[in-house]
Amino acid sequence: MTSDVVDAQAIDLGAVQRQVDAVLEDFLNEKTRAAAGRGHPPEVVQTVRDFLTAGGKRIRALLCVVGWHAAGGGGETASVLRVAASLELFVAFALIHDDIMDDSTSRRGRPAVHRVMRARLGADDRAERLGAGGALLVGNLALMWAQELLHTAGLDPARQRLVHELYDAMLEEVMYGQYLDVMGTGREADDVEAALRIIRYKTATATIERPLQLGAAVAGTGAAVLDVFTRLGLPLGEAFQLRDDLLEVFGSPDGACAPGLSDLREGKRTVLLALCLRRADRAQRERLGELVGRAGLGEREAAEIRCILQATGAREQTERLISSRYEQVLEVLDRAGFPPAADRALRGLVVTATQYTS
């Protein structure tokens, strides 16, 4: 496959997304055929396929390809598209497992995978435990397949070594971030720095920094470009998650993203909540303590929480944190000197990452 997505003026991100989707489709078709030939349960591959096609803007894959262009990549795109597609299977693994740990009911408008598995077991009184176990295994397979795509990207030994080092670092960071998130839920909820630390481990590296660096590694970049992507990726990743937290609680002004209840029911330790608790008076803190983390929280109680988030200025302060990080990213881009097409694509993705969910 040769590059048909970049010219002197622009990188066609829509074309990149279609090409990544084509790589995923071909790969999963191969897995479907292999499963049929070996007598494996056919619904496993279909579950992963359904998850991947349920939505998502492929922002990690797009950043990977744009990172490749920014680092001077050109010509044959087969390798970078395969690495980019691997990131989408990686995020499928991470989100499937995240939903199990949070006991989320849905993901991207569809039932969460563990809920799908639970429903398949019908009235079995072990359905909840076994459904979670089935989803855990599906997530594990998604991660194994992500690694398979990476191993078969056709890279020379030096580039393959760097790509795997970056990928391994990303996996470790996400695991530590998820551990901090799970073990910290409901404790020290007003600790803003602890909430930001979770974001850096769990989101900033895997969503922004590492995808950019992986694309650059495929292009054969040096340490200087990797450092630029760290200085760009970490604040952008923080802004991305801060925006996601706001959208989860308040929805989007245009109604495209509806307010949710899962973070409030879980008592998720977000920066938004930490800022609110830090600024709240005694009565507000007591009321938040009664409501946040309640499994049966309803819309009326959620509306009360939103009012407190507004009244304490936590929502406004979170918006300011996003804006400051957005400006920081633009300053990095202004000094980076990337090729014009890559620079424009990155600036567009910066807007996407700070305004919408993935």
The count of β-strands is: 2
CATH topology: Farnesyl Diphosphate Synthase
The total number of structural domains is: 1
Relevant CATH superfamily:
Farnesyl Diphosphate Synthase
What's the order of the H and E elements?
Answer: HHHHEEHHHHHHHHHHH
Strands side by side in the biggest sheet: 1-2
Arithmetic mean of pLDDT: 90
Broad CATH class: Mainly Alpha
Helical residues, percent? over 70%
Give the structural class.
mainly alpha
Q: Tell the overall outline.
A: globular
Strand count, sense and barrel status of the largest sheet are: 2 strands, antiparallel
Strand content: under 5%
CATH architecture: Orthogonal Bundle
Q: Segments where pLDDT lies below 50 for 5+ residues? A: 1-8
Radius of gyration: 21 Å
Distance between the termini: 27 Å
**Total count of helical runs of at least 4 residues:** 15
